[in-house]
Amino acid sequence: MSQHTADPAQAPSTSASTSASASVPADAPTGWWRDAVIYQVYPRSFADSNADGMGDLEGIRSRLPHLRDLGVDAVWLSPFYASPQADAGYDVADYRAVDPMFGSLLDADAVIRDAHGLGLRVIVDLVPNHSSDQHEWFKRALAEGPGSPLRERYHFRAGKGADGELPPNDWESIFGGPAWTRVADGEWYLHLFAPEQPDLNWDHPAVGDEFRSILRFWLDMGVDGFRIDVAHGLVKAAGLPDLGAHEQLKLLGNDVMPFFDQDGVHDVYRAWRLILDEYAGERIFVAEAWTPTVERTALYVRPDELHQAFNFQYLGAYWDAVELRDIIDRSLDSMRPVGAPATWVLSNHDVTRHTTRYANPPGLGTQQRVAADPALGLRRARAATLLMLALPGSAYIYQGEELGLPDVVDLPDEVRQDPSFFRAAGQDGFRDGCRVPIPWTVDGPSYGFGAGGSWLPQPASWGALSVEAQTGVPGSTLEMYRSALAARRVHPALGAGDRVAWLPAPEGVLAFRREPRGDGEAFVCVANTTGADVRVRVPASARTLLTSSAADDIQHGDGHAVVPADTTVWFTV
Ligand code: GLC
Questions:
Q1: Which ligand 1 atom lies nearest to the CA of residue 428?
Q2: For residue 198, is it within any domain?
Q3: Domain count along the chain
Q4: pLDDT of 374 higher than 60
Q5: pLDDT reported for residue 363
Q6: According to the model, what pLDDT value does residue 249 have?
Q7: What is the CATH number of the domain that holds 536?
Q8: Of 337, 385, 432, 572, which has the most beta carbons under 10 Å away?
Q9: CATH of the domain at 61
């Protein structure tokens, strides 16, 4: 194998991220969330306590010790509210009630209390862009007919064409098909997602009042924060103007759309921030804001708005050193002036798991249904995780990635439930593959997910990937995550700060140094994204702290280390 030489011991280069002048003032607040590792629980697929094949809150409560042992700081729970489940709970019928399939408000209270007892914070999902079509407001709006004041809380319009038979504008649903549905009396309503998810009208004062009250309800329940669903979508351009493009899906993510990332959303978040700050305990907001650039994302986390925003540009990057370094620099550079931590995420419930994405050549995007080389995918995914966890800021982990779970790419069509699959033109048609219930035990009817089946079928390989199978096994993916998260606690330099110091590295390799805040050890992280081993120079004092390649001993000594193909190594120096 070819070997290259890099010298992480040399002085750092002055890259954009090390030389930017604007910086967080020295006395900036250093909250727990600035370098927190936050674990996403997808309730229906985490743990099932009553053998109905569907995960629930009591199941989550019973498995919280796993998250404590894993070493995360907080848990983010995807929606568990009363919902007809047209979009797996992202269609909320009652924002103050728990869906019976997940349990009760008492169960939610028990999860929050137990999590706190274990030292874990709890973040809940808030879905303000749209309600369910079974929400009381929408049901009444429909029943009362045109002219009903309730219709003003949504976007009802007359259609175009001689008989109003055409939608009011040309917007398409993110899930495919028109973004408008016509009701029996002839009016149309807007839904950027499924027809069962009518968009709320944030120009109507009652909508803002209601959500401020919902915020208080859950804050009073003791939650530590909110993940804001479709945070970029609440405000629509005045007059709902036509897009005038026939390929909206290609534009999404690249341009500011009349229904996404409108400047008016920031007024909403300023008002929310005032409420949050009334509560003790450093509670936080994290935005799901798909914006065209990290620079636009930074607007959501200005000091008087939200705390964090997911870094989807990072998630969308391939396992490629140039692409990764570029997005790391741009992320740090755009967050530093507003004083917000960068965030890093590789997987969630809406995209193909990174183990599967990296099993394929670049270019397939975040939705794909194949895994060309699963072993390579896992190797790269583990390396990508150690890279992510060495970056300054906060990192998000999606349930099951600590087990190295791949997407289930061969689910039969008849078991699929993702609404976007049925509106096949949508961008996210294949989200069921990352939502398969996770395995806890080697055997059992659903590998310990529950005492019954599971709402999506689990592959036969799931037992060998279970928590039980990997616990205590040196080099297993689970033990690698545990070691990495334990190291972040012992060595705060790993997640702290707002910059990395890049070191010279050969093509395909990322090497950077991380400094401790006070006394303590510095780190060097070397990520080799190439398919060949790389020889790097390391200081004589360097010790290997952790490596992503289970079977590879890092050859080390004489001021050099050999970093194997598709591997990340952490060195203390
Ligand atoms: C967000 C959620 C996704 C959901 C959509 C509509 O993108 O993450 O799962 O389908 O919003 O609520």
A1: 10
A2: no
A3: 3
A4: yes
A5: 76
A6: 64
A7: 2.60.40.1180
A8: 385
A9: 3.20.20.80
What per-residue confidence (pLDDT) applies to 234?
A: 98
With a cut of 50, say whether residue 20 has pLDDT above it: no
How far does residue 428's CA lie from ligand 1's centre (Å)?
10
> What whole-number distance in Å separates Cα of residue 230 and Cα of residue 253?
13
pLDDT at 30 over 80: no
**Same domain as 455, residue 551:** no
| pLDDT at residue 145 greater than cutoff 50 | yes
Indicate if 226 and 157 belong to the same structural domain: no
Annotated catalytic residue 410: no
Instruction: Report residue 450's pLDDT band, with 50, 70 and 90 as the boundaries.
Output: very high
pTM (predicted TM-score):
0.93
- Minimum-distance ligand 1 atom for the alpha carbon of 91: 12
CA of 87 to the centre of ligand 1 (A): 8
Domain of 172, in residue numbers: 136-190
Looking at residue 367, its pLDDT comes to 65
From the list 58, 91, 196, 229, the catalytic residue is 229
Summarize pLDDT for 249-281 with one digit per residue, the tens: 666 767 778 999 999 999 999 999 999 999 999
Residues 366 and 256 reside in one and the same domain: yes
pLDDT of the residue at 6: 40
Best mutation site among 90, 135, 345 for ligand 1 pocket (most ligand atoms within 8 Å of CB): 90
Same domain flag for 355 and 475: yes
Q: Does residue 66 have a pLDDT over 70?
A: yes
Judgement on whether residues 124 and 142 belong to the same structural domain of the protein: no
Pocket of ligand 1 (CB under 6 A): 87, 90, 127, 193, 229-230, 288, 349-350
Q: Is residue 356 part of a domain?
A: yes
Residue 566 C-beta-side C-alpha neighbours within 13 Å: 16
d(CA 187, CA 408): 41
| 221 falls within a domain | yes
Please say whether the beta carbons of 563 and 536 come within 8 A: yes
Length of the chain measured in residues: 573
Which residues are CB-neighbours of 337 under 8 A, at least 6 positions away?
A: 20, 22, 298
Give residue 278 CA to ligand 1 midpoint distance, Å.
29
Mutate to test the pocket of ligand 1, among 229, 310, 396 (most ligand atoms within 8 A of CB): 229
pLDDT for 1: 33
One-letter amino acid of 42: Y
CATH code, domain with 167: 3.90.400.10
User: Quick check: is 471 in a domain?
Assistant: yes
Residues contacting 33, CB < 8 A, separation 6+:
73, 74, 225, 282, 284, 307, 308, 341, 394
**24 within 8 A of 336, measured Cβ to Cβ:** yes
Distance 203 CA to ligand 1 centre (A): 22
Q: Which helix (H) or strand (E) holds 571?
A: strand 567-572
Asked about 278 being catalytic, the answer comes back as yes
Is the model's pLDDT at 12 over the cut of 70? no
Q: What is the mean pLDDT of the chain?
A: 91
